[in-house]
Every structure is written in C-alpha cells, then in structure tokens.
Model the fold of this input.
Amino acid sequence: MSVPKEVMVDLYRTMAKIRAFEDMLGTVYYEGKLPAFDIAAGPVPGEMHLSQGQEAVAAGVCAHLRAEDPVSGTHRPHGPLIAKGVDLKKMAAEMFGKKTGLCHGYGGHMHLFDTALHFGCGGIIAAGLPQAVGAALAIKKRKEDRVAVAFIGEGAVNAGAFHESLNLAALWKLPLVVVIEDNLYAISVPKSASTAVKSNAERGSAYGIPAVQIDGLDVVAVYEAAGEAIARARRGEGPSLIEAVCHRLRGHFEGDGEGYLPKGAKDAWKAKDPIILFGAELKERGLLSDADVEAITAEMSSQVSEAEAFARASEYPAGAEALENVFA
Ligand SMILES: Cc1ncc(C[n+]2csc(CCOP(=O)(O)OP(=O)(O)O)c2C)c(N)n1
Ligand SMILES: [Mg+2]
Done:
C-alpha cells in the first residue's frame, strides 16, 4: 500500500500533537511536588504515565477509526485518545481535576472517558480488553459497521483476561483489533523475564487469529498493519492482533528512577525517537520542509497551551458534589 501524502502529514501532525500535550504534562506535573516528591501535591495530583516514544502506535491505528468505533486504552492512555480526536481542553481539565473535564474531574489521567468518541480506559491491567470484546459483541449483534479496538501493554498479555478475550473474540468472530503496545517493560520487568514466548504475536495462533509483529516506531508500518486488521474486522472476518514494538522515552511513571534499565538503553531509544525519525523521512521525501515542521510544532504547542490555560482557569467541583455520579 502506498500511503497518500496527506495521510503521511496527518500522521505526523497527530504524533506531534500527542508529544506536545505530554511534554506539557511532563512539566506541569512536577509543579508543587518537589523537592520531596509529594505525589498528591500540585495542579495534576496522582500518578502519571506518559507515552513519549509510543506515538506512532496510537497515530497509525486511530487514523483508521471513526468517532463511533469504540476504543479501550490502558493506564497510559493519552496517545490513542488524542489520536482519536479528543477536545484537548476537556482532556486537560480532567487531569487538573476540574469540573469542565471529560469526567467532570472525577477521573484524572488514568480514567479518561469520552462518550462522544466511545473511548474509555482505566488503571486495572488488562481490564480494557474484555470491555472491548463486549463492545465488539454488541456491534456484531446489532449488525453495525463499527470496529472495537483494544490497546494493551505487553505485560498485560500475561493476564488471564487477555486469553479469555482472544478466545471469545475468535469463537464469535467479533470485529475486534487488539493492539499490543510492546514498550519492552512492565514497570521494571523486561519482557524476557515475564513472557514465555519471544513474540506475543505467536499467541494469535493459539486462537486462530491473524497476528503480526511490527516496528511500532514506524508509523507507516503501524498504519498499514492497522488498516488491514480494521478492514478485515469491518468485513466481518473476525479479530486480529498487532504487536507493535516500541519503547518509552520516560519512566514507567513520573518519578521513576529507572535504575533497572541497562546502561545506554535510554540513549539508544532516544536516538530512535519516532517523531524525529518520521519528520526526517518526510523531509527527505520532500513532503515537509523545515519550516513546515516548525509550523506544525508551533501549532500543536499553541493548541496545548490553550488547553492548559483552560484547565487552569476552570473551577474545581464543589466538595458536596463528590458523591454525585458515583456508586456510594
Ligand atoms: C490488575 C493489576 N495488576 C497490577 C497492576 C500494577 N501495574 C500497573 S502498570 C503495570 C505494568 C503494566 O505493564 P504493561 O502492560 O507492559 O504496560 P506499560 O506500563 O508498559 O505501558 C502493573 C503491573 C495494576 N494496575 N493492575
Ligand atoms: Mg510494557
């Protein structure tokens, strides 16, 4: 498949937007938390899992999705939600715990729900996959032209929910695409210390599901693999599995000392930053100039600054509202 120029530029724009948003969070998050690292302090309290280095996976997959296609994200959810087209202001406000947020400030960064985009995520590892299977079952029963996509970490693949989900999705031939974001580590545990097979794509064969391992740093490779898998699901031919191998350029969570990483690993990953690599490729092919790249970076950073300003200026929910909209 040759990817049209406009799509290539759009993929780059999406990756740049995710990066700009997370760069902002990576700074704001530390406000008020240092020097003792008080996780509850500052404008964005609680844990924070950023996904710098994984943008190509989110951009390449979500470029094929429509608003009505349900997506379940992980505890590292920003990429897919931004790539799906979230309102950045509402997303930022949610993380700042404000009333104007996607979930009125109840959720925070790990619990981003966007009903308009049919997006959900959560902090329980592997829990989003059965939910995506449920969504895919509903789509099939209602005979709708929609596809459910589940993002899942390579660590989560060892949970029972992964295997139960794949079995049912295959048995019922559901319109589901499972995207494993293999960033090589589950917190401090490398895949080699947790996983019996070299490639999790091998696990697709246990359920008769087509599965591919791809370079998750290469957005075009992701776009092509996801295009095939999503088209297959839309044709009613059942689920597929994509294992996208990438890396994370920050710690598991903000505040992670990363003492478990082998010497030099981080530098090697930084040298393969998917956005820098793709930007260079687009320039080499004459699809973007230096000035275009600068303009896109400036545009995304201005959108993100507006979202941040909106979040800061919004009101906190009143304490008396804390028990509204929750099971109590
Ligand atoms: C059921 C459950 N067990 C354990 C945890 C603690 N935990 C949070 S993130 C994580 C590792 C997840 O690794 P992976 O699936 O590879 O995703 P990544 O963080 O690398 O994106 C674990 C074990 C959890 N949140 N939920
Ligand atoms: Mg991982």
